Amino acid sequence: MIVKLMDVLGARQADIVGHDIGGGIAQLIAVNYPEKVRKLVLIDSICFDSWPIPEFEPLQEPGAESEMSLEDFLSMMRGFMPKG
Strand, helix or coil at 14? Predict the structure, then answer.
């Protein structure tokens, strides 16, 4: 989804910063789309065999961003946000 957003915005490259689970996403972008990453910064990032967490695996499937509704995506993300 991030790479598609970059394409829509006309951004050929970006500095990617990821923290915690976002660090896992940043790593996937760097590995799968190295031409899109100018710099990569990881802060307290998830890595190795703890990524991707099972809940995020469906998002790696081709076409996942177009098959998942916004409501389903937001519902999934809310499960990771602190209550309060």
Answer: strand
